[in-house]
Amino acid sequence: MNDWIKAIAVVGGVFLALLLFHVIWPSKMKMEPHANFISSVRDEQQNILAVFGENTILNNRLTAEELKAMNAKGELNKFPIVPVMSYEELPESYVYFLTKVESKNFFGFGKDNVFGMSFSGIARLFKGKADGGSNIPQQLLKNAIHKKEGMGTIYLSRKYGEQLAAFQMVKSASPEEILLAYTNYSGNFFYERDFSGLILASYSIFGRPPHALNDLEMLLTVKTLKGASELKALCDDGVTNREAIKAYILDFFELIAEEPGDKKRLREMQSMELYFAKGNQLRNTSALTNFFHKTKKQTEQRFATQYISSITQENQSKLQEATSAFSKRFQKQLAVEGYDLEVSLIAVDIKTGNIEATLGNRKNSGAIANFTDYGEGFQCGSILKPLVFLELFENYDFDANTKLFNGDLKEYKYNPSNVGKKLLNKEVRVGDVLKYSLNKAAVNYRVYANPLEVARHVEDKLSEVEISSNPSYSLGESYILGTKTMTPWEVAQAYQMLFNEGEAVPLSPWKYIIDPHLQDTIFDGRSKKRKTLYTMASAKSIKSLLPHAFEAGGTCHRLRQFLPKEKQYYGKTGTTGKAKDGWTVLSDGKKLIVAWAGYVKNENGLLNRKGAPAIPSKSGAGSAGILAAMAYSKLYR
Fold it and tell me: Over the stretch 52-109, which tens digit does the pLDDT of each residue have?
C-alpha cells in the first residue's frame, strides 16, 4: 500500500510541477538581446552589399591602432550580427540540417516544445543537478539573451535559468519564430571573433550568402553552432585541410542519417566540394559601400537597421564588366599628364525611382571619391537643354514646331560657337537643336523669352526634388548651354521626372528599410511621395524629340553599335568647355542611365581638376556615352 501512496505522490508532484510551469510562471516573454548588432545592406537575393560596422572591426574607416584603442576601452563590439529578415528566406538546407543536428522533432513533440521541456525541467529538479545538452531555445538564451549569472534577480545556475526562460519562450512563440531568432541572434556562428550570425558566417567562411551554399558547406556551418573547437581548428586553414574537413562532416552526417531521404542526401554530398573564400570580402570598403553609407542618413540613429536595396549584386557585377570593357577600349587614355580618367554612372527604373546599379568611380574604390553624388557636381553642358525647353514648352508659347535662328544675333553681345557648321545661319526646329546640339540656336530662345526668368523657373522646379540651385551669376543667356553644376544623381533625378511624364519620384537605392528589433518596416519604397513638376503633354513633347539623337548625324548616333538592335532609345549628350566633362543620358523609356566622364588628379587625397586634359574624343558621346551604352547592354539586353 505504501508503494501505491509513493507512486500517487510522485504523480501528484509531477502534476503540481506542471501546474507551476504552465500557470504560475509568466506566459509571455519579452526578449531583450544585448545590443551586439550592426546594420547591413543586402539585395532581395540575400547577397550582402555593404556592412555598417561603426563600433566593430568591420569598420574599415578605422585603423588597426584605433580599433585596438577601442578594444582596450571596451567600446569595440566584437560580435556583430546581420539578421536574416524572415523565416521564408531561410534556406531549406539550413532548416533541415539544424533540426537534424540539434532536434529532429523540433517542429513536433520533442524536447524543444512545451511538454518536452516541462518533463526535462522536472527531471532536472528531481535529479538535483543541471546537466545535459542545451536545446535550441536554451542555446538562443545562452548566446543572445541570458546573462551568465542568471535571469534578472532570480539567482539560479545557468542551466536552471535557461530551462525556465526557455520554457517561457516556447509558451509564447512558435517554433518558426524561435528558430528564426536563434539564427539571427545566436552568437556561436563564427570563425573570427568579429563575425557571428548565419549570413556573416557564410560570407566569412565561403564568401557567399547562405542560399548559395551546397549541402556540404551548409552542414559545416551548422556543425559549428555548439563550439566544435576541433572543426574550427581545421577550418583555420580550410584550403589545406579541405579533404580532412570533408571527411569529418561526412562521417558525422552518416551517424545521424536514419531515413532514406537522409541517406540519399549523404550520397549526393559525397560528390560535393567545400569552396572556401580566399579572403573576407566584407572587410573591403568600396565606392558602393561609401555610397550606401552616405544614403542611409535618414535612419542612421536606429538600432541594427536592415536595408534591402534595389541595387543587386548581379547588376553590380554586370556594371563592373561594362567598366572593364570601357577601360580596355580607352587603355591608352586612362592616365594623361598625371590625371586619371574617372567615370561615374547611375542606372534607374523610371517608374519607381529605384536605383538599380551605380558606379562611383572607375575602379569602384572606397579610397577615391564617389562621383555619383560628389560635392556640387560638374558643369552639365548640353544635358540641360531638354530641361530648359521643357520649361519653355510648359509656360511659354513653344512647341516642337517653334523655329530658332542658328546663327549670331548682332543685337546681343553673347553669341556662342557651334561644334560644327551644320544648319548654320538657318531657322531650325527645337528637335534639330536637341538632335545636333546646336548652341547658337539654343541660346536664341532669348528672342521669345527672358533667359534669366526662364533659368530661375527651371531652378525653382528642380529645387522641389532637392536638386541644388546654382548662384544667380550662373543664370542668364548661357544657362541653357549647361553652366549649371549637377551631380550624376541630380541629372538622373531630373530625367526620371522628364521620362515619367513630368512626375518626379525621389531616387533611392532602398526597396525596404526594416528595424529587426521592432519587427517594423520603417520605409517602403512603394510609398515614396510623387510630385508633378510639369504636365504630361509638355514632358511627352520633349521626350518625343530625343530619339532623333540616334539618327545619322545625331549626337548619340555612334552609340548604336554598342546597343541592342530593334529598340527605340532616347538620349542626350553634353560636353563642357574645353571638353573637360562628358555626359550622356540614355533611356529606353523604362530604364534610365546617366554617365559622366572627366580627368581628375589625386594630390595626397585632394582632388584637382584644374588644367585637366580634354576627355576622349572631346565629346560626351565619345566618352561617357560609350560607357552608358556598354552598361545598358550588360544590364538590360
Answer: 766 666 665 667 787 788 878 877 765 555 555 677 788 999 999 988 888 777 776 5
- Rounded-to-integer distance, Cα 455 and Cα 385, Å: 11
Rounded-to-5 percentages of helix, strand, coil across the chain: 45, 15, 40
Residue 401 CA, distance from chain mean position? 44
DSSP single-letter state for residue 38: -
Angle among Cα 412, 413, 415 to the nearest 5 degrees reads 80
- Three-class DSSP labels, 401-454: CCEEECCCCCCCCCCCCCCCCCCCCCEEEHHHHHHHCCHHHHHHHHHCCCHHHH
SS3 of 46-81: the string is: CCEEEEECCCCCCCCCCCHHHHHHHHHCCCCCCCCE
Q: Could you tell me which of 408, 416, 319 has the C-alpha nearest to residue 364? A: 319
State the pTM of this model.
0.81
CA dihedral 127, 128, 134, 136 (to 10 degrees): 80
Q: 454 near 478, Cβ under 8 Å?
A: no
Nearest to 182 by CA among 135, 237, 122, 139: 139
**504 close to 492: Cβ distance less than 8 angstroms:** no
Number of CB atoms found within 10 A of residue 152's CB: 9
Helix (H, G, I), strand (E, B) or coil at 300: coil
Residues 6+ apart with CB under 8 A from 132: 120, 124, 159
